[in-house]
Please model this.
Amino acid sequence: MKLLTIYLEEIRHHLPLKNRDDIIKEIRSLLMDSIEERNPKPGTEPDEATIKAVMADFGAPRKVAQQYGTRAFLIGPQMYPVYLNVLKIVLVIVAALNILGVIIAAVSGSSAESGIFVTLLETVGGLISSLFTAFGIVTLSFSLIERTTPEEWRVEIEKDWSPDDLEKVEDKERVKIHELAIEITMGIVLIVLINVYLDRIGIYYLADGGWASAPILNDNILRYIPWITAYTVFDIGLNLYLIRKGFWDLGSSIAKILINVFKIAVLAAIIIGPAIITISPTAWDALNFDLGSTAQQLTRTINITLDVLLGLAIFGLVVDSIKRIIRTLYSKTHIDFTFKAD
Amino acid sequence: MTDAAKHDQTQSLVQELRRGVIILAVLSQLHEEQYGYSLMKGLEEQGMQIDQGTLYPLLRRLEDQNLLESDWRVDTSRPRRYYILSELGKVVLEEMLTEWSRIKTTVDKLLANEQEKNYEIINDLP
Model:
């Protein structure tokens, strides 16, 4: 009987938390039924051989537990192809950026001191660790999508389908899951980057036989971080909703426009506010680019360039918002939606 | 493909074929309440062998789908969980039975036709 207790404990260990005790209670009762019937001397304590035979019949604890469990996916079959695609894209980009960094270091000649072998090792090491990080972030993003997107909506889409629906689908503006998934991933990367690894955004150069870095963002950026984080979180939330919904509706269009306005305000504040980039003279000298400009001059140029880029980003956001307004106004379904009330 | 692999493939196809039928068989036996072991024995006696590891979790899943109701009984020698068809289960079983007899008739006919054709082909051989 002791063996039976161990066996049940073993099954229990692998069972999902929900209803665990009840399931074990039932399995015990069922096993006892089996043992009782197989007992060669009914009415007496069953011998070990009988108990073992019943357990062998019933199966390995893990297998039994599995039968009682519901299957949970980290990334389900529906999202899996999208996940693979996004993963490939992100890994290629990360690898390319890494290699670019090495080429820049090689061209600037700063790697000569430490020897080619050490540089190579560091490069491979850096590449592997950044690939793993990228893999982790993409996987995490998708498992987040998997968990926040209940299966019901997919079923709901298929339910009561008729060919007439195709016309309706044509009117609706379908979301592009690939794009949204990449946006979510990038959003999470951005949040982690500016909140945790802010000092790692910088110039990397070889000094004293090892990699050194100098941050390029100065303290002026700090006041914007909560705002950037906030709109990125809103964006991720909206994207999750859109993946779940499958198409743009009135609410999500309005939300998108509001988020864009929010973004424009933050970006404009950065442009108007003090410069956020400072190039460290030490790092700049170490890079050894012969551009004939000092770190100070460069800092000014880069900040102006940044302002121009932010201006372009604002322009892009304005265009995106106008596009959204036009699509909302001229989509048949949305007009249907507005007149549905009466 | 090795013989073992062929055997595995056949087994998994056969299991797939059996899966739906098992649910029908189980529901059909639960107009009166039964506990897991008695249900398994009853099915076995009538020629329907179902693994314990398949049957017992299946009962729970059917209960989760509201097709069965269950109850712990302590009046016997040991506590046992008894299952019985719910109202929904009865309705679903009726529909499944209708569908089953349709499938059975159709498939029987299909197979009979096919057998006849093969017979003719063999007879036509010189």
Observations:
- The longest helix of chain A spans residues 295-330.
- Residues 53 and 87 of chain A are 48 Å apart (CA to CA).
- Residues 153-157, 333-342 of chain A have pLDDT under 50 and may be disordered.
- Chain A is about 70% helix and 5% strand.
